Amino acid sequence: MKIPSSSHVHMLLYLVVLLLLPLLSVSTDPDPLQDFCVADQSASSISVNGFPCKPASNVTSDDFFFDGLSKVGDTSNIFGSNVTGGNVLTFPALNTLGISMNRVDFAPGGVNPPHSHPRATESGVVIEGQVLVGFVTTGNVYHSKVLTAGQMFVIPRGLVHFQKNVGVGKALVIAAFNSQLPGAVVLPFTLFASTPSIPDDVLTRAFQVEEKVVESIKSKFSSRAKTTHYR
Questions:
Q1: Distance in angstroms (rounded) separating the CA atoms of residues 213 and 131
Q2: Whose CA, among 129, 138, 156, 229, lies 20 to 30 Å from 116?
Q3: What would the pLDDT profile of 50-74 be if each residue is shown by its tens digit?
Q4: What does the alpha-carbon distance between residue 144 and residue 135 come to, in Å, rounded to a whole number?
């Protein structure tokens, strides 16, 4: 059998790399095909992966600026935290640009409960306070650290994570995502407040508890409890 020369092997490797490069460079959201595409959210009858563009003639300078993250969030809820979203739903100019940001306010002891973002990696910085940030890998390994103002963290896409205010006062985190709408699967709501409900016998078997425990947990997550903004 003829053994390929080293030059042929190298050429084959180069071709493989060239074929893979486009795949490796693809971000969570597809690249835009124009300078901007300010979302036209009034076009509700049109269904696309994102939003249709507002006509350029209707776009104004104000479309490219958003002050929502300057407002302190209301943390008077069961978690003691509030997420203010700066995504395409609140800042339409982000449409097709593949980025968004959140502001997370914490009361003393407040927690941003375990959740995941199915469409984005998260990077954040603590602006105020002391915050315990943790996530769990698909290998069931838990990584965590207490961060103070100016320190950053990163959460790989899709992994379950949380933040908890462990300081004596309020805390504030600003997070960024590589998606215009990263989505959020908030585990307490997903498991115990879905519509329709996950059957009790599934949850009792999964958590190895009695049905009355599941019913007790479900009772704590009424529709009134869903005051924190997640998308």
A1: 30
A2: 129
A3: 788 899 999 999 999 999 999 999 9
A4: 7
Quickly list H helices, 37-194: 187-192
Nearest to 231 by CA among 131, 127, 115, 124: 115
**pLDDT at residue 227 is higher than 60:** no
Q: Which amino acids are annotated as binding site for oxalate, given as ranges?
A: 102, 112, 117, 122
- Report the binding-site residues: 102, 112, 115, 117, 122, 161
**Interval 100-134: pLDDT, tens:** 999 999 999 999 999 999 999 999 999 999 999 99
Mean pLDDT for 142-163 is: 97
- Structure token pair of residue 22: 């486009």
What percent of the chain shows pLDDT beyond 90? Answer: 71
Q: Which backbone phi and psi does 179 adopt, to 5 degrees? A: -155, 145
Binding residues for Mn(2+): 115, 117, 122, 161
- By residue count, the chain amounts to 231
Helix (H) or strand (E) holding 6: helix 6-25
Q: What distance in Å separates the CA atoms of residue 100 and residue 32, rounded to the nearest whole number? A: 15
